[in-house]
Amino acid sequence: MAYPQPGPPPAYPQYPGQTGMPAKPPIPRTVQNAFYLMLAGAGLTLISAIIGLTQTSAIRDTIRTQHPDYSSAKVDTAVHAGVAFAAVFGLIEVGLWVWMAFANRNGRNWARIVATVFFGISCLSVIGLLAASAGGSGPFSAQKASGVGVALGIITWLIGLATIILLWNKQSGPYFKPPQFGAPGYAAPYPYPYAAPGQQPTPPAPGQPGGPQVPQDQPTDPWSNPPQ
Known about the structure:
mainly alpha; 6 helices; elongated
C-alpha cells in the first residue's frame, strides 16, 4: 500500500511578530515648513555677513576711538583681521543653518536637539546685539549698533524661534522617532527565520510548525503479520 506523500510547503504564510524593515513615514508639513525657514535663516545670515563686511569704515573708527595710540598700519591690520574673522564666522553660520535644515528634514532626532542648542546660543547673541545697539563697547559695536544689523539679527532670531516650535510640534514628533520593528502592516516576504542574506529560507520540516503535517495513524500493512 502506498503511503501518502507530503504536499508542497505552504506559500509563505504570515506569522504574528515577524516583520520586515518598516517604511519611513512621509515628511510632516511642520518639518517641511521648518526646513524652508532654516534655509531662509541661512539666506539672512549671509546677507548680514555681507553687510558687515562693507562697514570697514565704521570698524576703523571704532578701533581708533578705543585705541588712540594705534598707528595707521596697526589700525589697518586690526581692521583686516576683524573683517576676515567676520567673513569666516558668517560662512560657518550659513553652513550650520543649511546642515541643520537637511538633517532635520531627513528625520534625524539628534539634529533636532542640536538645532535647539544652536537656538539657545543665538538667544545670547541677540542679547549681545541689543546691548551693543544701546551703546555697548567692542570692536564691532558700531556695526552691531546699526539699524540694519539689529533688524536682521532680530528677524533671524524670530525665524529660529519659529523653526524650533515647528520641530518640537506634536505632529513632528513621530517623524523623528526611530523605526519600530514589529509594527503591524510591515510583513516580511518570508516566514522562515534564520536565513542568510541573499539566500531563500529553508521551509520547516514535516511535522514542525508551519510545515506539512504527517498523518498520525499510519496505514496497516497486511503483510506485516502474515496469518499463521
